[in-house]
Fold these 3 entries.
Entry 1:
Amino acid sequence: MPRIKSARKALRQSSRRRQENLKKMSSLRASVKTYKKGLSEKDEATKRTSLSEVYRALDKAAKTKLIKKNKARRLKSRLARVRAS
């Protein structure tokens, strides 16, 4: 355990940030998973809207530096390819 006051505060901050990042990451993974699961549906409009929701989530995650920019781009590209095939 840290003894210095600023180190204690830094520990509190990092644990709080870690919890938030874990929540955001699990939510992002869940949205990608539900999109992939929904690909078996016949309704094209639903697929399109769910893809745009996943894109939005990925862009927001990249913007807040939860994931890197290129990872978001790579995932978006792969998800679009899965939808096309």
Note: The longest helix spans residues 5-38.
Entry 2:
Amino acid sequence: MKRCWKKLCGAASLSFVLGLAAVNPVWGQGDRGPKVRVGSKNYTENVILGEMLTQLARDAGARAEHRMELGGTQIAFESLKNGEIDAYPEYSGTLEQEILKGETLGTVADIERALAARGVRMTGRVGFSNSYALGMLRTLAEELGIRKISQLRDRQGEPAIRRLQFGVSDEFMNRSDGWPGLAYAYGLPDRAQGLDHNLAYRGVRSGTIQVTDVYMTDPEIAAYDLVTLEDDLGYFPQYECVLLYRADLAERAPEVVASWRRLEDAIDAPTMIGLNAQARIERVSEERVAAQFLNRKLNTKLPVPPDNWWRRMLVNLGRNTVRHLLLVSVSLIAAIIIAVPLGILAYRLPKARQVILGGVGILQTLPAMAVLMFMIPLLGLGVLP
């Protein structure tokens, strides 16, 4: 019993230490070279690309940190503008339809000028386009004779079509180039539910939903035998992958920017699908996938981390435990500091009670993501927001 307890404590201690290292991965890289912070959005492809940028930056002599899975597009871009990160992977269609919407953007030069006004620069295309599409199980699509998105509208009177359940990713649900615009353009029924992108694939496979949004480089399309419906109205723009970085980084770390530009036209769509499949289907770590690709494609000599599932589990457990404790501690202390005086005030001043309770009620109804988006420009990333 004592031996088991010692092993458990040892594993917990190792997990905690590895977690600290994961929270601050710049430790151990020395004090030389410029500090570069790479970000990525919260899906596998972006994390793999972010890891490539991080490893190339280290190879160029920088002290690089990867702040992975920051969230959606707006959080990543605001973090870039505010200097919380120095670079992250993005897509041309997202730039036009989500980040720079409302501006006249006829050419690549127009996009570059709009980004420059925000202190951001853009590389050339990485080499692949990851456009949106709607996907269905091939067997169901063939059974219903559905090949185009417009057929979902034209055949709405049929009972089998009316019974179709739409489930799309949370970000797609709220993007200007996502579900609201798509449903309006095609006249689709407004009954889609938002859920996590990976859960949507599981829902399609299990039959709880029948239609979902897919990225064209998702390996699950082939793994689950899905068919992508033709966008016969041409609603979705092209989503060419590019790299965004802060303009001042070209002066602080020109070698890093030059190293990143080696990725231009280096990754075609089949290659990206294969890299995604390694991480999501074969469960290889994103760090290993990125290092192996860079060594093979760019002839780098990057160290390839061992594919140790237990170590990765302990790192993730430790990192998430540390983050959880930090977030809970800070938020709890802040809540006590604010709530206790307000509670005393509401008790002692009956006239102020309704104002306090009403204000607190309004704040409580605000979506957490909306509050976070407001906080990031003021407080940056990390524990404070």
Note: The longest strand covers residues 132-137.
Entry 3:
Amino acid sequence: MIDLHAHTTISDGTVSPRELIQAAKKAGLTAVAITDHDSIDGIDEAQSEADRLGIKLVRGIEFSVAYGRNRLIHILGLGIEPRNEGFMSIYTRYRQVRSLKLTHVFNKIHSMGVQFEHEDVEPYITGGYMDRQAIAKFLFAEGYAPSIKHAWMNFLDHIEYTDGELITPEDAFSAIHEAGGKAFMAHFHLPIGLKGYSDEETFIRLKELKEMGLDGMEYFYPSYSEKESLRCAQLIEHFGFLKSGGTDFHGANREHIRLGIGEGDFAVPDELLENILPCVCTP
């Protein structure tokens, strides 16, 4: 059993990269992926613990991608080598540009009645660049929101993204492929997926994304309904996509979701790794 979608404190989870590996080992997983939002900063710590405990770490990232009119989608990069020069060039430029685009976010939150300065958020930065995750962590830590999730719901989700604050599909796919990874659409059934598109437009969008570099879709996901699972299977077959799957674990930020098993009747088969990693072997 594996889990190819999990978050740590580097983004919006509540367990550290080391703790995530320990939880995966305890849950009996053979492999786990760290897919923090727009960040690879937890991978080294996780790799060290994975080597110690003898569990396979799938190095990953979940990019927030600008797509369509006022829409973003989440693209998982799985099996990446983050030290790759091509990947780091795109990734670092993206992080730098995004950090420079936050003035309007600060101004909007000020207009909502929360007064704070840039330096107040600096202790919550990971990876050297400020982003919305750091602001969400600040809002939660300082009592402006009861959780990081609510910091997003009550503040950040109401603030539109400006040009350059999100990575483009082309750059996301290029970065993932430069790093030797595969690119998957996460949770297609959500608004941060393809929800709201007609069946015909969904086909058009997926055809376009495949031509850009999309390799697959997240076939196993805890909140899929039976109808959504069937729809996902049909789309995967039609486009010849690879399958991925995971719980989208966030620790205490999604208390009903447990690593590897979702809500208790969920499992991602090991054989999915055969088409994602160039060599599936014991760590």
Note: The CA atoms of residues 104 and 203 lie 35 Å apart.
